[in-house]
Each structure stands twice: as C-alpha cells, then as structure tokens.
Amino acid sequence: MEVRNSPSDNSPVTSPPPATPSKQPKPSPNPVDTKSVSQRLHKELTSLMMSDNIGVSAFPEGENIFSWTGTIEGGSGTMYEGLSYKLSLRFPLDYPFKPPQVKFETTCFHPNVDQYGNICLDILQDKWSSAYDCRTILLSIQSLLGEPNIESPLNSYAATLWNDKEDYKKMVHKQYIDGADAYES
C-alpha cells in the first residue's frame, strides 16, 4: 500500500540529504598510461635510427625517454646549408595526443623562430595530429628553415630581411657563429 500526502496536508516535505563529496580524487577522464607513451617513444626512436633521412636525428637525454636532443642539418640549397642546429624535444605524458615542446637550442635566425628558440609551426600547435612522430617533426622543422611562413613571423626582422637573400644569409651565419661563441663561453 502506498501513502501519499494530499495537497491540503501541511506536513513538511523533506528532501533526501545531499550527497557528501568523496574525499578521493576523481580519476581523470583519460588516465595517462606512461608505459604506452614510453613504448611509443621507443618505437619512434628505433624508426628514426633505422630511417635514411639525411640531416635529422634525435636521441633521449640519458635515461629519460620523455626528453630528447635533436639535430637538424640545414637543407641543401637553402641559406642554412652546412649549418647544424641542436633542438630540445620535451614529450608530455599524454603524447601523442598532445605535441611535444620543441625548441632550438642553437641560435637560429629565422622568421618563425624567436630569440629564445621557440618555433612557430602549425603542426606543433593547432594542426597537431597523433599520427605525427618525432621524424615528422624534425623533417617539418628542417623544411621550415628553407621555406618560412613570413606571414606569421616570430622574428619580424628576419621576415623583413628574407627577400634580400645576400643580407639574410649573412645574418644567419653571423647569428649562428655569435650563438656558438656565446654557448662556448
């Protein structure tokens, strides 16, 4: 038998007590599996070492698979030909769903590289895809050296100078040498 209060009944209506919040932290909707990220990075390292890509390489710094040092050689026929650039790659724990932080450690005079080595490249930001890998990143940066996006510069002086190839090349080499001298000091 079910008992219902009539509308004329003046008895107070009580609602159930509010649920007490759990003291346990809520699990993230996408828990991080560092083991699978680590396995992916090991596969990428093996693939990069076995590839025949000329002018790009990268290796973990010591035992930390999430922190790599990369090297890019300036492409043939570009103003960077004959120069070698060191980069740092920092892979987040949710890689490959988020891009790594990539930065020039060698001074690089370029329209899409700022004075701190930060790189403006769409695939490292809003155009990132989990299908990309370390090899793709390095090759894209190598390509960017010879084909900058002067419409979206981080270094406006370099973007302005880009069309004067002779002066641009002088500045590339001057900054490269000055940066190397500062690095050795």
From TrEMBL:
Keyword Cell inner membrane tagged: no
SUPFAM superfamilies recorded: UBC-like (SSF54495)
Residues covered by the UBC core domain: 36-181
Any one Gene Ontology molecular-function term assigned to this protein's record: ubiquitin conjugating enzyme activity
Taxonomy, superkingdom: Eukaryota
EC nos: 2.3.2.23
Active site per the UniProt annotation: 120
Polar residues biased stretches: 1-10
Ranges of Pro residues composition bias in the record: 14-30
Region Disordered, residue ranges: 1-38
Swiss-Prot/TrEMBL keywords: ATP-binding, Nucleotide-binding, Transferase, Ubl conjugation pathway
First-tier enzyme category under EC: transferase
Family: Belongs to the ubiquitin-conjugating enzyme family.
PANTHER family given in the database record: UBIQUITIN-CONJUGATING ENZYME E2 (PTHR24067)
Protein name: E2 ubiquitin-conjugating enzyme
GN (gene name): UBC20
